Amino acid sequence: MRLVSLKQVRPGMKLARTVFTQDGKVLLGKGMNLTERLIQGLHRSEVDAIYIDDPRTSDIVVEDVIRPQTRQIAVEAIEKTVKQITNSNKLARKISLLEMGLHFQRAFSAILEDLMHNEQMVGHLTTISTHSPSLYHHSVNVAVLSTAVGMSLGYNQSQLMELGIGAMLHDIGKLQLPEELLNTNERWTPEQQEIAKQHTMNGFNLLRKQHDISLLSAHVCLQHHERINGSGYPQGLKGKQVHEYAQIVGICDVYDSLTSPRPWRGRYMPQDAMEYLLGAGGHLFEHHLINAFIKHIAVFPIGSSVVLNTGEVGVVSKVDPDYCHRPTVRILKDGRGNDVHTPYDLDLKTLIKIFIVGFEDEQLFEMSALTPPAESAPTSE
Questions:
Q1: What region holds the HD-GYP domain (predicted)?
Q2: Residue pLDDT, tens place only, 34-78
Q3: What is the pTM of this model?
Q4: Which of 97, 214, 223, 238 could form a cystine bridge with 230, CB 3.0-4.6 A?
Q5: 352 CB contacts (<8 Å, ≥6 apart)?
């Protein structure tokens, strides 16, 4: 399979990986032959990329780091909480919220079990998500990334549970923001951004009242926009005042936001987001946490089409966690742009004079440069 932007998809192509809706339901199943009507439906659902079948890359399989059913359980837990919080019946809302902690403990336990049993975790965390951008999937993505970092730091199961549930719920306070703010397709104005900052305190006040949710998980919600140089919000905390859990979730939140599309921009390339975070080390986030995160992210995701300095074009077929900048590439076109008769693999970690210069499908990405973080906290909008 290989990843293509929706702008490159044509009727007759075959879907190689299931596409889900914002609330975790199956939108299109793996193996479906795409028609013009189905492609238009993907556009309406704000899906910007899909994996398609290609005989030349049939052995390249991109799996989610967590099982589809695990992701659906987590998304449904978040969706159920959304409905509870927005329930107009105050008594019904109060009763149903009493079980919030148990819902998320069950959902996160499934995520943690998948991660602990996935020996190829690092490689799979390199993949680009093709889920439509939403609070639900963003929250699950951040939880998965944050837990991977926690595992690499040697956290025990109790710590991973606190971190993971905090990550799943880090943006829950956004549900109490004005509806017109959440539904806009325009970049927030400075005035709207000030209103949006209230989501950290909103979420903390909600979670700290839930007896089955750790106070540290609630503090993740409160502090995930704090930065160690004091430039964050809502309290302008500095250094060790910002809990390590909140820093981890802050890093993963920024990365997933930058590499996800927005109505006003495309997704940034993984290497651009990584460079952005590396520039934040030491003044926005602690260096050792950035380094722990980087270990789980490869610059060139499996299944993506890349261009080599030789002019050859291929699909990333394998990523070695120790050499994530130099993956194995399945060559499909020669240096003159002609299809090769028999595709072959190049292991770039053994070919030091050959390197990747970019992605073939640039329509999938935002090509404007990211401003390096200076003294202020990076946005995750």
A1: 113-309
A2: 999 999 999 888 888 899 999 999 999 887 788 888 888 888 888
A3: 0.89
A4: 238
A5: none
